[in-house]
Design a protein that fits this description.
heterodimer, A: mainly alpha, two-stranded antiparallel ribbon, about 0% strand, B: alpha/beta, Rossmann fold, 10 strands, about 40% helix, binds adenosine-5'-diphosphate, binds magnesium ion
Chain lengths: ~425, ~270
């Protein structure tokens, strides 16, 4: 019953807090004060319900924890859905095939020649999937915090914009160049911060992101300043003219292919000598170097590779939008990409994809709720962090096939 | 001193005049120690004597203030390794475990050992992405070697478990397997028996001797368990307040009055 009392208290407290905001409205036209008491009731009821549900969930979670702790064999984690999927190659192949099929049909299914809004939204979302997967290498696998990741995205975007406008280079030429430029900047950033950790790393990367934006804003002669660069050419399709819808769909397929390549590469790396070194670095830096892993090389490669994908995504972003300006590369965007990695589950490819799509698509389709959408969005994030701090998908353990036979048959000393 | 003349085997590690200062604190003060092939050498002394600091200086975690650390590699060359990066030193053939266990908790037991193979393999990022034959071969080799090592330390049946889920004693053995995966000629163990029960300590005793004999690895060991130390070591170095106060065979150490006073204390008088 203490729950009830507390929830009641919280409800009243919220009614009091939101009184000036939700109840009093000054009508400036008729010069009257409106008292919207019904709002107060609604706030009270909602706050009460949420508070009650909140306490209920917290209690249940605590009970669950206690049960797990009391169990005699705590090391047997219950396999998650994702783990079961990964362990069953037939099932996972089928799911993958279905996902690929849906992804391929999607743009034709949801668009008409007049209205291809959904395709464009999806292209933006997929660009952020690439960003999420790229940052996943740096943050999720190697454990190197990067609060200025969007700077590499900007590098890619401006590389394409400048090369295409200034030198008339085509999209396909610029795509790898954008990636390489991102990578170069990754190395440039990587060197000075090799020795940094934790808070210091956060501050330096944050600074790097801000510097990039400030340079773009103020160096008008090269980067067009705050106005940005307009009239960036769309990707060319063997010189064939495309209408608006086809252009969008074409870009969609390009990003989709990039997403597929990113998944493939990350997956390969994750289960390799390089990926294991990244993870070891994340887990314990001292033990990692003491076991013979070259820290400088490992860290730099993680930064460079993360930045590479951001550069590629930047080129596509610039080509898709026709127009870029520094406002697309704010700290908020870096934070957003970081949120995708953290919410998805550090290092988990599937988790990051789901989180990226959700974080990009939810606000877009919540536009109907206008001013409340960021509120809902924030609430979802807070709830996630409280109830699933390890991210959407985690606990994926890689099982290796090994030969259990004894190899040392020629060894005399048994 | 007198004992060193009787020690056989090729000299592997040669530490002389090693000193390490932390600001005003001299944690290690002019310590010298040699390790020969096939030996188990113990480094003992009360808590805070500077044993772990000695390890850290030898393995490159710290750069010693003064002194020389030299290793004699298999090809007969002598190298001074002061100030060398830890990963280079591991690459040259010295591997260690940690007093406060430092595993990779979110990686599986097998993966932990596979990290030890890192410096003996060379798969690059491109190899890994393209899935070259080198990548496949080294991966196979890493897995097999690591699994065999797990068998050796008795952890094969938990190879796919997260290392954080292992018992204390198992974690210490996993650290040994991980260090062995780097193919060292010298293995440095920092209090491997800490937190183990007598049964586990006894098994560890056997494991260490077995590693020395089968893997052809010399061992430098920090340990408080006197029974274990006296049982298995060929040579003992005693430290107190950063200084080396005695060196010799277990028998000599047992009878050394300085050691008895400083370290064994009442235990020896009883
Ligand atoms: N990184 C460090 N900075 C400052 N003092 C240290 C550091 N590491 C160890 N010390 C000090 O050096 C002395 C020796 O420590 P340590 O080598 O850990 O002893 P032991 O391993 O023999 O118990 C202690 O007084 C300890 O406080
Ligand atoms: Mg110690």
């Amino acid at each position: 019953m203490s729950h009830l009392k507390r929830s009641l208290g919280i409800g009243l407290w919220f009614m009091f807090l939101t009184l000036p905001l939700m109840v009093v409205r000054v009508n400036t036209v008729s010069r009257e004060v409106e008292w919207r008491w019904s709002n107060l009731v609604w706030v009270g009821i909602c706050a009460f319900a949420i508070a009650w549900f909140w306490q209920f969930s917290i209690e249940r979670r605590a009970a669950q924890r206690a049960k797990v702790a009391a169990e005699p064999h705590p090391e047997k984690d219950r396999p998650s859905l994702a783990q079961r999927l990964a362990d069953d190659p037939v099932l996972s192949r089928r799911v993958l095939l279905a996902a690929a099929l849906i992804a391929l049909i999607f743009p034709w299914a949801v668009s008409t020649t007049q209205n291809f809004y959904h395709v464009n939204v999806m292209v933006s979302a997929l660009i952020f999937v690439v960003l999420g997967l790229g940052l996943n290498i740096t943050v999720g696998l190697a454990g190197l915090l990067d609060l200025g990741y969007i700077a590499f995205f900007a590098v890619g975007a401006y590389t394409y914009a400048l090369l295409a406008k200034g030198f008339g280079l085509g999209f396909w030429m610029c795509l790898p160049l954008g990636g390489v430029m991102g990578m170069l900047f990754g190395v440039v950033l990587g060197f000075p911060i090799l020795r940094l950790r934790g808070d210091y790393l956060a501050i330096v990367t944050l600074g790097f992101g801000s510097i990039t934006k400030i340079v773009l804003e103020n160096w008008d002669t090269v980067f067009g300043g705050a106005a940005g660069i307009a009239g960036i050419p769309r990707p060319d399709f063997f010189g064939l003219p495309l209408d608006g819808r086809e252009k969008s769909i074409y870009t969609y397929y390009i990003v989709l292919a990039l997403v597929a390549v990113t998944i493939f590469v990350t997956n390969r790396l994750k289960n390799s000598r390089v990926g294991r070194a990244w993870m070891a670095l994340r887990e314990d830096e001292i033990a990692c170097v003491a076991m013979g892993v070259d820290m400088a090389r490992t860290k730099l490669s993680a930064y460079a590779l993360g930045a590479f994908w951001a550069g590629l995504a930047g080129v596509i972003f610039a080509a898709h939008n026709n127009f870029i300006n520094p406002d697309s590369f704010t700290f908020m965007d870096s934070a957003m990409v970081l949120a995708m990695v953290v919410l998805g589950g550090m290092g988990s490819i599937l988790g990051v994809i789901i989180a990226s799509l959700a974080l990009k698509l939810l606000p877009e389709y919540l536009r109907a709720f206008a001013e409340y959408r960021m509120l809902v969005f924030g609430a979802v994030m807070v709830l996630m962090m409280i109830f699933r701090p390890q991210g959407l998908i985690n606990n994926m353990r890689r099982k290796y096939e090994y030969d259990t036979a004894d190899v040392e048959s020629n060894d005399g000393g048994k | 001193m007198a004992a060193s003349s009787t020690r056989g085997g090729k000299k592997l590690l040669e530490v002389s005049g090693l000193t390490m200062d932390f600001g005003g604190l001299r944690a290690v003060d002019n310590v010298g120690l040699d390790i020969h092939a096939g030996e188990i050498v113990a480094l003992i002394g009360p808590n805070g004597a500077g044993k772990t600091t000695f390890f850290n200086c030898v393995t490159g975690i710290y750069t010693p203030t003064t002194g020389d650390v030299r290793i004699h590699t298999a090809d007969g060359a002598t190298r001074r390794i002061n100030g060398m990066k830890p990963n280079r030193i591991t690459g040259l053939g010295m591997a260690r475990t940690f007093q406060n266990i430092r595993l990779f908790p979110a990686m599986t037991v097998l993966e932990n050992v596979m990290i030890g193979r890192h410096c003996r393999t060379g798969t690059t990022i491109l190899d890994a992405i393209l899935g070259t034959s080198r990548s496949a071969r080294e991966e196979r080799e890493s897995i097999d070697t690591s699994y065999q090592l797990l068998k050796k330390v008795g952890l094969a049946d938990v190879a796919d478990e997260y290392s954080r889920n292992l018992s204390y004693g198992a974690q210490r053995r996993l650290e040994i397997a991980r260090a062995l995966a780097t193919e060292p000629f010298l293995l440095l163990l920092d209090e491997p028996a800490a937190g183990m029960n007598p049964q586990e300590t006894h098994e560890l005793d056997e494991l260490i001797t077995r590693i020395r004999d089968e893997e052809n690895v010399a061992i430098l060991l920090i340990e408080h368990d006197m029974k274990l130390v006296m049982n298995i070591s060929d040579h003992i170095c005693v430290m107190e307040y950063g200084k080396e106060i005695a060196q010799g065979t277990p028998k000599e150490i047992k009878e050394n009055p300085k050691v008895i006073e400083a370290y064994l204390g009442e235990e020896a008088h009883a």
